[in-house]
Amino acid sequence: MALSSLPRAAILRAAESRRLRGFVQGHGMRLGAGRFVAGETLDECVAALRRLNEAGLNTNTTLLGEAIPSADGAAAVVAEYEQILDRLAAEGLRANVALKLTHLGLSFDEEIAYTNVEQLAAHAGRLGTFIRIDMEQSEFVDPTLRIFERLRAAGHTNVGTVLQSYLYRTPNDLERLLPLGPNLRIVKGAYLEPAEIAYPEKRDVDRAYMELVERGLAAGAYIAVATHDEKIIRRIQEYAQRDGVGRDRFEFQMLYGVRPALQRSIAAAGYKVLVATPFGPEWYPYLMRRLAERPANVGFFVRNLVRR
User: Which of 60, 67, 109, 53 is nearest to 81 (CA)?
Assistant: First the structure.
């Protein structure tokens, strides 16, 4: 089925509906959003992170939100992230942070976004921890890469970013970053992009995904393999064994609430597995993208609605 098929497109468009957003956010946790989101408060998230750590899994967390419209709002997000970083360190959790640059001001000012994320990278560095800069819609790819390169040039080696295999441009972006010896998460891509810039067919996205992971590993990058696709996971494991790529050179990343048994089984086999565990009151767009990635999850959500 094409990635741009109607169910996925319809779900992603629903993410923009204010009326639906109001209803779902009013009832969503009871309807089942808690399967994919570790609560609305940091306390709830910390409890989830601890449970995952105790199960042998590494974690990251994200304060959900994006497209902050003002400098004051972005500064408030920075302050919240500093508190999150401090709390993770104080709790002794195996957890780091992933964040969106539009949540720090990128949608209106690239320089403000850079200043904000640089402050957080420095704060994380003092705590001995890591920050992942998420990749967003295609319009933000270039400024995100510029900011990542600026951070690395400023000496912030504790920062990584993300590349999306469904964009035609991504192999060139990978080559651009490889001289930095980067820490890169490879994803397929969760936004609705036109066929002019993104592969519409799943088989092409999967092929590009494997090529990116293998090229990154061959060139010495640290690769976070972010997928729930068991076929791809097995192929990466086979590639690493065949080419002598140590397990300290890559990890598998999966989403909170998605295939937890698979997460545990891969960790039990001796691979590092990180579970992306977001939280916060602004969880609606995130939830809709998770449903769009696997429309069968809509059935889970609707069944909970019927049971109310």
Answer: 60
Q: 164 - beta bridge partners?
A: 187
Please report, for the chain, the start and end positions of each structural domain, with discontinuous segments joined by +: 38-282
Select which of 8, 134, 173, 206 is catalytic.
134
Q: 192-229: per-residue pLDDT in tens? A: 899 999 999 999 999 999 999 999 999 999 999 999 99
- Whether pTM > 0.85 for this model: the answer is yes
Catalytic residue among 173, 185, 206, 290: 185
Known catalytic residue at 134:
yes
Q: Which two tokens mark 298?
A: 């809509």
| β-strand pairing of 273-276 with 159-164 | unpaired
The total number of residues shown for the chain amounts to: 308
Question: Distance between CA 199 and CA 193 in Å, rounded?
Answer: 9
185 is an active site residue: yes
Whether residue 80 contacts residue 115, with contact meaning beta carbons closer than 8 Å, is answered with: no
Q: What is the CATH number of domain 38-282?
A: 3.20.20.220
CA distance 64 to 280: 5
Distance CA 198, CA 192 (A): 9
Judge whether 223 and 249 are in contact, CB under 8 Å.
yes
Closest CA to 139 of 205, 178, 197: 197
Kindly report, residue by residue over 244-280, the tens digit of the pLDDT: 999 999 999 999 999 999 999 999 999 999 999 999 9
Question: What's the CA gap between 15 and 99, in Å, rounded?
Answer: 19
Paired with 99 in beta bridges are: 133
